[in-house]
Specification:
Pfam families: STAS. This is Anti-sigma factor antagonist. InterPro entries: Anti-sigma_ant, STAS_dom, STAS_dom_sf. Belongs to the anti-sigma-factor antagonist family. By secondary structure, the protein is α/β, with parallel strands linked by helices. The protein is about 40% helix and about 30% strand. The chain has four helices and five strands. It has a five-stranded mixed beta sheet, sandwiched between helices. α1 runs parallel beside α2. The chain is globular. It starts with a strand and ends with a helix. The model has no long low-confidence stretch (mean pLDDT about 90).
Length: about 110
């Protein structure tokens, strides 16, 4: 798994995740989010480069949903590939996850209201 992130001027972190998000790599993603994003409060996860999304990766997304409710995290997922959408839909996480088909749309949804 690889994470390419940019900290934007509007306070949103845009993270492009590629590779496999599985039992081995999901803890790395979780740690990265805890260290780089949670204090800031704005995240767009672009998962279009993900080739496999396992249950451990789904767990990280479920935790983000909890943080968004409890701590006011603003976040969104960009997902158009079946590899990502199918497990989200099968587990019911798709209904709880703010998902968008494009980066600009996701960024607009996550930006802090002025």
């Amino acid at each position: 798994m690889r994470i390419e992130a940019s900290h934007r001027e509007d306070g949103v972190v845009l993270a492009r995740v590629s590779g496999e998000v599985d039992l081995l790599s999901a803890p790395e993603l979780r740690k990265w989010i805890q260290e780089e994003v949670l204090p800031l409060g704005g995240l767009v996860l672009d998962l279009d480069g993900v080739g496999f999304l396992g249950s451990a990766g789904l767990s990280v997304l479920a935790e983000l949903t909890e943080h968004s409710i409890g701590e006011g995290l603003r976040w969104a997922v960009v997902a158009t590939s079946r590899v990502v959408l199918r497990p989200l839909e099968a587990t019911g996480l798709a209904a709880q996850t703010p998902m968008y088909a494009g980066i600009e749309e996701a960024l607009d949804a996550v930006r802090a209201p002025e």
